């Protein structure tokens, strides 16, 4: 075994052992359901939890657990046995603690045990007429949630509807619900960054006020974490953008690679970019299947939206003629990024759409940056979006938790995406420089 291969195997074993160790040592998830996880004596399966919010921000929690006929008869005849069973079944790692609940009551409805209790201050006022439920928010911490039951549903007060799209939540009839499952040792079926907003309607003004409420509540922490987490990917992307403009002066294979790409005219480069973008869109569902067993996932949608934007960029550069300005190319890059983000928003959460748009902007900005570097002016303006993209994406993801370490370490997880941005941006940088050279030749010719 050659030393490089041996070193690779050793590093892989160490990393694998570390991941297994983290899975084993990870604390148990915090359970949303206190009783409905199916541990109640006589339960025939997991139950459901419905959180009914009141206008004051307090909430009534109602858990329903199906039980067998024998248990139902016993609880019906002996209320004290039911009370003891509920107390015994209360999840030890429940998000709702005994100090927070009041008016706990157990009853029987048919063959369902119904446990109701009150929890104060689950929601608080937000911007305008909106309200914010940040009772479950634990961003930037080691907390992992598990629904625990079959389903958890949060119902706003009468006359109100949920106005945002919480991660993994399903909106229906003005409420939002999460389905339970087996998230695995390090995963979660209820995101620790979950916040819910609601208001009297879900029109544009109320929705905007809702997201303003979320930004005011978690924005400062997200910005602090995002700025740190964005440092490493921003360094990768900025270094790649600068290197792309100097590759023709490199030695050996890199220069030959550059010559192979630069040797083609703008139309041919644009055509190849279109083909790569189309291929990315077609491959995206396969990526979803490979990573999650289904075609539509965050990764597959992000890849498809980004690849579609890449194809659009290629088509646009093929149509460019005459005196092309750096500012015009920058506007094209911004428009394509916004388009990719908007498409992503139809499937992903707003945060996911921002991540897609940010990285697409960073890659697309290689086009005006290459153009500006070749012309010798305007490079600073075009370089801004290249660097800003990773920071914007990191802020959208933040706050983050990396085993108690600084958020700066999270940038290592974003570095592969940054490398992909550089790979996609390099041909665009070449196109930008080629356009600038054509412009100069046309002016002097």
Q: What attributes does this structure have?
A:
single chain; alpha+beta; 2 domains; about 55% helix
Quick summary:
This protein has 445 residues and is an alpha+beta fold. The protein contains 13 helices and 13 strands.
How does the SSE layout of this entry go?
Layout: H1 3-25, E1 30-31, E2 48-53, E3 59-66, H2 69-77, H3 79-89, E4 101-109, E5 112-119, E6 124-125, E7 131-133, E8 145-146, E9 151-155, E10 161-162, E11 170-172, E12 175-179, E13 196-199, H4 204-229, H5 231-244, H6 252-262, H7 266-292, H8 298-319, H9 326-345, H10 350-364, H11 366-375, H12 379-397, H13 411-444
Parallel strand pairs: 1-8, 2-9
Antiparallel strand pairs: 2-3, 3-5, 4-5, 6-7, 7-13, 9-12, 10-13, 11-12
Helix pairs in contact: 2-3, 4-12, 5-12, 5-13, 7-8, 7-13, 8-9, 8-10, 9-10, 9-11, 10-12, 10-13, 11-12, 11-13
Descriptive account of the structure:
The chain is 54% helix and 13% strand. With 445 residues, it is α+β, with helices and mostly antiparallel strands. It folds into 2 domains: 186 residues, no CATH class; 215 residues, no CATH class. Helix 9 runs antiparallel to helix 10, helix 9 runs antiparallel to helix 11 and helix 11 packs across helix 13. The longest helix is centred in the last third of the chain and has 34 residues.
- In round numbers, the mean pLDDT is 83
What count of helical segments does DSSP give? 13
- Count of the domains: 2
Write down the overall geometry. Answer: elongated
